Amino acid sequence: MRTLIDDLLAEQGRLQTPAAKFAEVHDREPDLADHYRSLIPLTKPGKDEQYAFEVSLDRCTGCKACVSACHNLNGLDDDESWRDTGALLGGEAAPSWQQTVTTACHHCESPECMHGCPVGAYEKDEDTGIVRHLDDQCIGCSYCILKCPFDVPKYSEARGIVRKCDMCHQRLAEGEAPACVQACPTEAIRIIKVPTNIPAIPERRRTEHEKNLFQSTIPNPQSGLPSSNITFPTTRYVGRKVPTTAVAADRDQLTPEHAHWPLVFMLVLTHVGIGLVGSAGFQPTASSAPLYLGTLLFNAGMIAAVFHLGQPHKAWRFFLGLRTSWLSREILAFSLFAPIPLVLCALPLLPDFPFKENVSILVQASVLPVGLLAVLTSVMIYADTRRSLWAVPLSAPRFFGTVFAFLLLGASVEFPLLRPFAAAAIAFKTLPELWVLRLADIDTDWSPLRHSARLQLGPLGNITFWRFALAALAMAAVIFSPWFALPLLLASEILERQLFFQSVQAPKMPGTFGPAHPTH
């Protein structure tokens, strides 16, 4: 007797889906070693060549077999994924057009993850061009995640380090296809060899690299897709032509980014501390209350930074990245500043010694030069990620504004005439934030900054309100009492740094479409 199940199975056989065809081939030819070797080069890359992924858009169905295979073969955590699938939508000119996309590490010619790492935990293999992450070197700072414009490195909570796709380099070395390549039922992914001596000129690159990635084929700044001109990725997407109106399916999802609370407190407390310690130069004695408070807050910020690292005991290796990484430079700059407030606090308690007064003057004079240099490295850390909200014109007034607002606030304790200037400094540092917020209504096209403005006025609206409300209260309070204004402004600055992290538009490859995720 024929059952419904029998009918359904027969129907599936007639449909000849990719999975059905894949199973049929396996049944017919159990040993497919030769078949899989056809999906990878038979010889190693030569001079000025490297391995790269090639993805056929015509063949990709979004079945996620590649995602599952990568996860299983590499023993990833439950919430960890080195390969993702997303979608492109056609936009206004082609509203019914849709294309699924599979993506992993692009093993770029100029990998920003490697350049930004403060401890040398990345290497680009000279023979294959594969960008590998060295797990035993990683300190878990996650700066490579911010530097990568494709959202490739993933942080592992269980291990306290970052990990990413290495193109299954061990398998390639033995003539075996990577897990994702071998698992794809439609052979949409393969490994090819590409040239690496192409000049870093976008026009040449589009011609000689056959239009790598989507930025090279979609001259559309509203697409929400990352630029290929930052790291020069080697992945090739071939086959189906992508319309110029295509956009990332998840472009308009207003999902706040990670808050990075240890970094929020580090950036606020260290900058506040530098300002208050600097204000001690305006006081009649070096042992002023702003100096002690500034020293306490600065060191609290330095301690908070440690909690952002998954492997803090390895952070002493930061000097390895001084040549390329702004994070290494920030660690050095803040380490140079750290002893200064402690010396200023200790000098009045020490017995007199020759040139004691000269030493005090010299140390006090070094506060602002060294402190502002340290703040500059903080600005550059985020500007170097190429994220629009973190560009120098927007982040520098925020960071330096915090220093000078608290410097004037601390100085106004002794000199009341400086209180209006302190209020003005508080108002001045809100101007870049207000300029971004106006884009939510004025700018009709999608842009990273408009996305940030919509986040701040939408899911993060309550935080935005209290950030400006507390700043306004601090401006009014400073006229009457700097000490009353200080906690108000401190709370306002913490909310400002939270918005700094959570409302940034983080570049990434296209994700899936659907309703926005719940906000925090």
From TrEMBL:
GO terms for molecular function: 4 iron, 4 sulfur cluster binding; metal ion binding. It is found in: Cell envelope. GO terms for biological process: anaerobic electron transport chain. SUPFAM superfamilies: 4Fe-4S ferredoxins (SSF54862). The keyword Coiled coil does not apply. InterPro entries: 4Fe4S_Fe-S-bd, 4Fe4S_Fe_S_CS, DmsC, FDH_Electron_Transfer_Unit. It holds the Pfam family DmsC. Residues 51-81, 129-158 form the 4Fe-4S ferredoxin-type domain. The chain crosses the membrane at residues 261-283, 289-310, 331-349, 361-382, 389-411, 465-490. Its main location: other. GO terms for cellular component: cell envelope; membrane. This is Dimethyl sulfoxide reductase anchor subunit. It comes from Haloferula rosea. The lineage of its organism: Bacteria, Pseudomonadati, Verrucomicrobiota, Verrucomicrobiia, Verrucomicrobiales.
